[in-house]
Records
---
Amino acid sequence: MGRPNDDVSGVPCNRTMGHGAMTKPTKPGSRVLLCGYYGEHNLGDDALLATLLALLPPSCPVVATARDQQQVREQFGVATCPRGKPISLLLALVRVRVLVLGGGSLLQDSTSRRSLLYYMALILAARLLGRPVLLWAQGLGPLNACTSRLLVRLSLHLVQGITWRDEQSAAMAAAWGIRAPVGRDPVWSLPRRHNPDLTDGPTAGAICLCWRPTPLLSAAGWRQLENQVINDARRHQAPVYLAPFHAHQDTPLLKVCAVRLQEAGLVCRFWRPRTPWDFMAGLAPVGLVVAMRLHGMILAAMADRPLLALSYDPKVDAAVTAMAIPSINLADPNGLAGLPGAWEQARRWRLSPAHLTRHRQQNRCHQQLLDRFLG
């Protein structure tokens, strides 16, 4: 597999989270390239990769694209290749049998046009090499530019298998004549694990904040949220734990929030769980989670904790509606007016086992896609 500093590197493939998910062996010599925002120090993308690996056959040889290759190798026990080096990525593609674009919203231009072109080029290269391409549990869009929509529309016709994670993505593709099964976000199907690292988790009754930067909130809006936290923490004599799901994007924002909360006399600590399982297990004593990150919300719901969602995106809206999670729509200019009532409702909210079961059943299409091509 190569030394740790090689372009394609790895460790023995001992994906313990996948045992029992599937028992059919992969075809002899088959190998899969998993492409996504892995190794970005984003707990949500780690959860997507963990779920995808759990649904693959345990014996399936895997290579995952990653920015921080060491983190992905150590955490997941899979070989890696550098996501940002086109030549290395092409060499990895030559060595595999199937390309899987795994979870998230990879086909969008809101992050950058460059990101979209990257995935379009990867799909085209795979097809020129005769490799099947699977879009696994994908979200489609936003696609703001006409050229972006045209490129994606053409690229979807090159793909051999698709499952969508939401109805809006499926409807957009269907309008282009491309119909595929629709599930839910695959992280709802993340298997439980019983060996989390709980050395620095929240204490009893804590308020946990999973916030991210967003242009939808003004300085006054952030202040209103912080004041709500301050009032609630004082009332319940609760410490506040700040959990930056995306280490690079969320930490600067949460550091500013921490200063304001500490100035108000609150006990305020940062919490950086290493894995999605650590996050879920660490939430056990928490009195309230206030989540803006989609996967922070999903993992908190699966941990069955009182939960308030701050929705900045239609994908969050869809999960909120499906699971009846108390929420504030940040895209609504008057949304924060309902914050006190939603906050109290959130403190009483608990997960409906029936809703979770239905979600997992709707996600069977993601497993079936992998079964069809890799089983």
---
Amino acid sequence: MALYETTFPWLSLVLFLPLVGALGSALLARWPAACRALSIFASLAELGVVAWLFLVLRAGGDGWLLFEDHAWIPAFGIRYTLGLDGLSLTLAVLTAFLQLVAVLSSLGREKTRVGLFYALLFAMESGILGVFFSLDLALFYFFWEVMLIPMFFLIGVWGHERRRYAAIKFFLFTLIGSLLMLLAIVALVVLHGQDTGQYTFSLLALRGTQLNDGVSHALYFAFLLAFIIKVPLFPLHTWLPDAHTEAPTAGSVILAGLLLKTGVYGLLRIGLPLFPGPAAESLPWLAALGLVGLFYGAALAFAQKDIKRLIACSSVAHMGLLAVGLCSMNAAGLEGAVLQAVNHGITTGALFCMIGMIEARSGSRDFERLGGLWGRAPLLGGFFLFFNLASMGVPGLNNFAGELLILIGAFRAHPLLGALAVGGMVFAAAYTLRLLQGVLWGPPRDEAPMADLSAREALTLLPLAALVLLLGLQPGWLQEVFRQSIRALPLALGGGAP
């Protein structure tokens, strides 16, 4: 039962309001200016509703803050069940905020088919929110697949030179994991029905399904593979640098800030609670993969000449560290992982926006053609320095808070795990320093003047910068929102990677 009783379907409103923006964008496709204006308005409206819910519900406790349940396909035990707790509320706010950032960063840079571009962005937002709200596995899977289609077309149609290759690679990796998860969902429902006589896709009901060890491990592996492909963890990360490199700016913002987080959310909400035994056994392996990804992602990033691909590879490192926090399976590590998921979305989203701005001015993302940004466009350079320092984990900025909690959790789980994570973070800082040295203070290859930030660009970056400072100086207010939800999940807190 929801903590806040209401007959108004707030979750359905939040879930389907972006589809109104998608429909409006499609209908206004012949008038690009009107389409852009509608997209801004629809994004602001969605953010306004979600922000209001956040302010009202953020101190609600550890229960379901909002809950909706209706029959959908009763013959198969499928229901339209949505739930909102502190964890999903936090991710819903991040989704609505980054959607607005993606829209603002795209204005005038869509190249072609403006209406379809924004329609796909809004459809993807609805799919992501559906993943965060769904408490029925059939509904969850439906929205999980809905996310895939818009991103495939955003990369394949509006991407760069190798966009088709990147789009197909993204599609195939995600599809393989999704199909395995679908098989596992069906098998779990059938086994639950045979055991209890009730065939249901309800996540809450399926948690108590009795399974033998072999079946439990096989089903968990299918769910796990789908989620860690999306995170992604080494060695299933290879689709990510290509997708980021070729995607338009808005696609990269949503991909880094939100789509990767659906994998983390799936592990927390579905994978670990449904299969606690196999999950506990997998923690050392997942922690090891996270550490490998931390070091390997940093090495990849350091070797890149394309600054967008560098940031894409850095996401492999960041998500590897986040996996270490999840695998610590204690309060500090889990809270740090969720906090870092939000922080990574903000800082990496901001960096992808800035790379789009730099490319629009210079026509290049290559180290060898960039340099001297600090002197040529000081405001742009200042923001670029700020967000890179945040990404590097400088104290007082947002990533530091999440990384510190992850390290505390890792040391509590096993000192060696914490020590290796610290070493990986130090190694990861090298690529950020190389990026700053080459782009900000390297010798300029072009003496042509470069325009500094426009008012619209500054308006896009200022809220991101404000959140970086707020979450760096006072992260506790956000932790309070999702802390009880994390502790209420049946994840066997107190265990860990060792």
---
Amino acid sequence: MNQIKNFEDLECWQSARVLVKTTYQICNQDSIQNDWETKNQLKRAALSIMNNLAEGFGRFGDKDSLRFYDIAKASAYEFKSMLYVLEDVGYFSPEQLVQIRQETNKTLNLTIGWIRYLSKRKEPHKP
């Protein structure tokens, strides 16, 4: 694993950033344009993933950091659940949903991996 000096070095944060960009792009499409509540919740969930990863990195001690990483993980599950709503109401094409599900799963898996890594290591995290 490369040395991680900043939250921007975290692969899970980098993946979350891509997911946020994709989320903002799809929220500008005509199909969802007037559904303010769904758009807002989708954006908030994506931003929560990215921002909680950054905030967790800035905390002193693994225990406090892990709390924020766990929130990021939970937000990824929320985001993933919301994709079913988008599918069920027909806002996006199956191809678009496949792409965003892949990005979501990548972010989620990287976040879970980061949490597992921190949970097992002996040396405490210090930003």
